[in-house]
Amino acid sequence: MNNQKFQSFIDLVTFDQNFTELEKKISVIDTTVQKFNNQLTTLQKQLEQNSSKKRDVKKQLDAQELQVKDLQDKEKHQMEVVESVASTKELEAANKELEYLKIERNAQEQKMIQHINKLETAEKEYAALQLKSESDIAEIDTQINTEKSALSQAQQQIESIQKQRSMLLSQVPAEWVDVYENMRGRVKDPVVQVTQDSCGACFSLISSRDLQALRQHELLQCKDCYRFLYCEEKK
Ligand SMILES: [Zn+2]
After folding, report:
1. Complete domains list, the chain, with CATH
2. How far, in Å, from the CA of 191 to the mean position of ligand 1?
3. What's the CA gap between 85 and 147, in Å, rounded?
4. 194 CA to centre of ligand 1 in angstroms
5. Which residues pair with 228 in a beta bridge?
6. For residues 22 and 154, what is the distance between their CA atoms, to the nearest angstrom?
7. How far is the CA of 187 from the centre of ligand 1 (A)?
8. What does pTM read for this prediction?
9. How many angstroms is it from 184 CA to the middle of ligand 1?
10. How far apart, in Å, are the Cα atoms of 34 and each of 3, 31, 139, 144?
11. pLDDT of 110-144, one tens digit each?
């Protein structure tokens, strides 16, 4: 059994474990960036909600203004009626109607003033929220940029690591690499050390024949969990 190949294989596994750390780091960064982006979306939604509230209040005010305008027209027309009636009885009725229109117009004008105040409040709220959002968004953007530069650093590390990895890979027999890569997709620790004559992951007992082979730097798979097994070099 080629000792050098075995050592390269163990080196590859150790290497990949460090690689995993780096990948974890990247995944943490991704999660953080996602979190910041969610915050941005929430802020955006708040702004939109506020803006739509403001629009609704404006619509109500417009409708109210139309109503007042309509009553003003009716009142003006009624004043003409008052001036043109012939009999006292008709005059009384026309005046009564005019009086009613005035009362109604007053009531609607009061409502209109309430809507004007409401709109003013909504506009102030929106302006304040917009101001606060702007500074919040700027702060979040800064944080996202920090994360992104950490990400690009980690990605550069991965790139240089990958070059080293292909070097290591070329020194390990292809059939080992095949089984190892296959296991790697399924478990976090595809290669484990033998401890107390058992598999280091599932603690399944290893036969003495297999132990002997392992000590001679053969690579075996655990019969229970199929992980690669290796024995630590006795120094
Ligand atoms: Zn096992």
Report:
1. 18-171 (1.10.287.1490), 179-230 (no CATH)
2. 10
3. 83
4. 9
5. 191, 221
6. 7
7. 11
8. 0.63
9. 14
10. 46, 5, 15, 9
11. 999 999 999 999 999 999 999 999 999 999 999 99
Rounded distance from Cα 37 to ligand 1 centre (Å): 42
pLDDT digits (tens, 9 = 90+) for 163-212: 888 888 999 989 888 888 888 878 888 889 999 999 999 999 999 999 99
156 is written with which tokens?
């550069």
